Every structure is written in C-alpha cells, then in structure tokens.
Amino acid sequence: MNRRHYAISLHQATQESPTLARLTALTRDSSERLKAIDALIPPMLRPAIQAGPIEGDCWCLLVSSNAAAAKVRQLLPAFQAHLRSRGWEVASIRLKIQR
Predict the structure, then answer these.
(1) I need a surface site. Which of 6, 76, 86, 90 has the fewest CB within 10 A?
(2) Cβ(52)–Cβ(59) below 8 Å
(3) How many domains does the chain divide into?
(4) Any domain includes 75
C-alpha cells in the first residue's frame, strides 16, 4: 500500500481512485435527479426528501417520515415519467425512511 504523508484535496483523491470517482459521479447524478423533479414536489414536502443511492436503473429517495413517504408514493409515476423525459432511465424509485 502506498501511504502518503501529506494531505490531498478531495478532487485529487477522486481523480486518482476509480472507486471514488464512480461514487462521486453517482452522488452527483442522484443530486441532479432530485433537482430535476424539484418542481414536481410540493413545497412543504421538499425539506423531507433527500437524494439517495442509485443502483442500476433503480433510484432511492430518502424520506424523513412515514407521512411524507405516503405522499411521495403518490408522486412516483410523475417523477419517473419526468426523469425519463429528461434522459434518465429509471425503472423504479425506492423510498427509504430515515429515522
């Protein structure tokens, strides 16, 4: 293992590590998806939703409560259709309640 005895920036670390680069790209993609559907989310519900992980063609949204998840479930078909119209292949959106 090659140890460094000096600090490097996060940007430099992601450039040097394929694993970190992939993770950074997935995180950026997930955040962009959330921004793309932001207008479809009722304003009072926006603080309760965060972008989650992407696993293949399944995207996860992190939701703060059961009540928020119930409302978001009603909006999932609209979210998927909107994301597809913007070029993302999203077969399903999974919800995970953060406690």
Answers:
(1) 6
(2) yes
(3) 1
(4) yes
